[in-house]
Write a structure and sequence with these properties.
The complex is a heterodimer of chains A (about 290) and B (about 240). With about 290 residues, chain A is mostly helical. In chain A, about 80% of the residues lie in helices and about 5% in strands. In chain A, strands 1-2 form a two-stranded antiparallel sheet. With about 240 residues, chain B is α/β, with parallel strands linked by helices. Chain B is built from eleven helices and ten strands. In chain B, the strands form two sheets. Chain B has a six-stranded mixed beta sheet, sandwiched between helices. In chain B, strands 2-1-4-5 form a four-stranded antiparallel beta sheet, covered by helices on one side. Classes of the chains: A mainly alpha (about 290), B alpha/beta (about 240). Chains A and B meet through helix 6 and helix 7 of A and helix 2 and helix 3 of B.
């Protein structure tokens, strides 16, 4: 009984944290599913959103969640432009070329952020940053609950979009058979741009909620990329349901790992999980 | 049946890189016809289709559809002109349901307005698809998959439907059922261009045919006449 109540806290935190990881990983998963490219700039683009929200907060006292109103369309358009002018030509050459371009984008943004905002660690601190709820004897910060709620909303919205609209179905179709999609009148070049734009818009959301939850610095994106990568490997590359389950497993194994093995277990355990899944089921739990 | 020219291919040469695959191909499909292109594996049939549907482009020659030049158009724009292609091997979206495959068939602007009407028509032609509409396409049998492929092609609201190797890998019974459906589709005013390896069966179903060999058209005419032609009988039916 005591063990159970001990475990309540890491389990609740693991699931809520997993929600944040889902939001971070969704954009990476979407781009891979459609374009078959690992966007290694994803983590850094998420952190760019954290910094832009930080800028709006510190300069004009704009609430970070409100910043998403302009931030989501801004990142969507930024994604369209990055795909159209940087990635598209590289993809036509090879997946490796696209990987290198993405890596270059990440380096440029990291350094630009460092020049503008210094390497110092920042946080998005608001009125509600220190609010928390008590469940049993566990105190849960409000932002963790927001993280999970946002994960649910975003998953549902993306699912509805991909399954119920022409644009969403065209993305799904092009990711399964590009040539057949062209025969339906789907312009795959445009689908790639829209998919990348959506992935970036998801990145903006991820950046804000990551920044509300944890401090960040210009190189935090690298850690996020590795976590997001772990999440989608667990769940299966390109599968939305897989990404959700992968995020939950990653979050839970991180908090439970920390609970049983101390701080060193926090990232060791989730990545051991990734290795185990890769060994037993290389396509991921929900991969095809 | 009107004799209006719907599709006209004029003297096209097509290359894969430096390799010429089609030489000086010309053909005509009139509105309301079932026309067949027959020929052995590797003769260039699929290349010809990909050129008509804009996946490939000819180095020489031109293609006109309903009086409009479509030679340089992209595949994704040609569907909207009224040409719907059902590719070899069906190429369904395997992880999408039957209903989703049909839905995405109506992607082009002209077809969206007529989606419900076309869907009713598809389910009339293939009642089994309505029963299986929630199943993933990859879980269907080969014959059912071909029905989805044809249905998806109809959802594009075409004037011309091009069908590549419809009978490939299907039992003769299912093939003859599908041919009956094609007749119904034609009776509803959609022109059909069939491409098949199986020359004999194709000639029996078509009004006119072109026989293609190593990238050139070697014979053409009314399908009935071709069946009587000595060359065809010798080459394809071993008589």
């Amino acid at each position: 009984m005591e063990l159970l109540s001990d475990l309540a806290s890491p389990i609740i935190f693991g699931i809520l944290l997993g929600g944040l990881y889902v939001v971070i990983a969704l954009g990476l998963s979407l781009v891979f599913g459609v374009m078959k490219v690992i966007n290694v700039a994803h983590g850094t683009l998420v952190i760019l959103a954290s910094y832009l929200a930080f800028f709006a907060l510190s300069q004009w006292a704009v609430d970070p969640i409100l910043w998403l109103l302009p931030g989501i369309p801004l990142f969507f358009v930024l994604g369209l432009l990055i795909e159209k002018y940087l990635l598209n030509r590289a993809i036509k050459m090879s997946a490796d070329a696209a990987l290198i371009i993405a890596f270059g984008i990440a380096l440029i943004i990291q350094n630009a952020v460092q020049i503008i905002w210094t390497p110092q660690s920042r946080s998005l601190i608001t009125d509600y940053s220190f609010e928390s709820f008590q469940i049993g004897n566990v105190y849960i910060p409000l932002v963790y609950i927001l993280d999970f709620a946002v994960a649910l909303i975003v998953m549902l919205a993306i699912h509805q979009f991909l399954n119920r609209t022409y644009l969403g179905q065209s993305i799904t179709a092009a990711s399964q058979d590009k040539e057949a999609a062209e025969l339906m009148g789907i312009n795959s070049t445009r689908v790639y741009q829209v998919a990348f734009g959506i992935a970036m818009a998801l990145g903006a959301i991820a950046g804000v909620f990551f920044g509300l939850t944890f401090p960040f610095n210009p190189t935090s994106g690298n850690a996020l990329l590795i976590i997001a990568f772990g999440v989608i490997i667990l769940g299966g590359l390109g599968s939305m349901v897989g990404t959700f389950i992968g995020g939950m497993i990653f979050g839970l194994s991180q908090t439970l790992g920390g609970h049983f093995f101390g701080p060193t277990g926090q990232l060791l355990v989730p990545f051991l999980m990734v290795l185990v899944v890769l060994t037993i089921r290389p396509q991921g739990l929900f991969g095809r | 049946m009107s004799e209006e020219v719907l599709l006209q291919v004029n003297n096209i040469d097509v290359f894969y890189g430096n390799l010429q695959v089609l030489w000086d191909i010309s053909l005509v499909v009139n509105s309301g016809e079932i026309v067949a292109i027959a020929g052995a594996n590797g003769a260039g049939k699929t290349t010809l289709l990909k050129t008509i549907s804009g996946v490939l482009h000819p180095a020489q020659g031109s293609i006109e559809f309903a009086g409009k030049g479509i030679t340089k158009m992209q595949a994704s724009d040609i569907v909207g002109q009224g040409i719907s292609q059902i590719p070899e091997g069906r190429q369904l979206f395997p992880e999408m349901t039957v209903a989703q495959n049909l839905f995405i068939g109506s992607y082009n602007r002209g077809a969206r307005a007529k989606r419900d009407q076309n869907l009713t028509r598809v389910y009339e032609l293939f009642p089994v698809l309505e029963e299986r509409k929630k199943q993933l396409a990859k879980t269907l049998s080969g014959g059912e998959q071909q029905m989805v492929a044809i249905g998806r092609g109809l959802m594009a609201n075409p004037r011309l439907m091009i069908i590549d190797e419809m009978s490939l890998g299907l039992s003769p019974l299912i093939v003859s059922e599908l041919f009956q459906v094609l007749n119904e589709i034609r009776n509803r005013g959609i022109t059909i261009l069939l491409v098949e390896q199986n020359v004999w069966q194709t000639l029996k179903k078509a009004d006119r045919a072109y026989v293609i060999e190593t990238g050139r058209i070697v014979l053409s005419g009314k399908a009935n006449d071709l069946m009587d032609e000595e060359d065809v009988r010798n080459a394809y039916f071993g008589e």
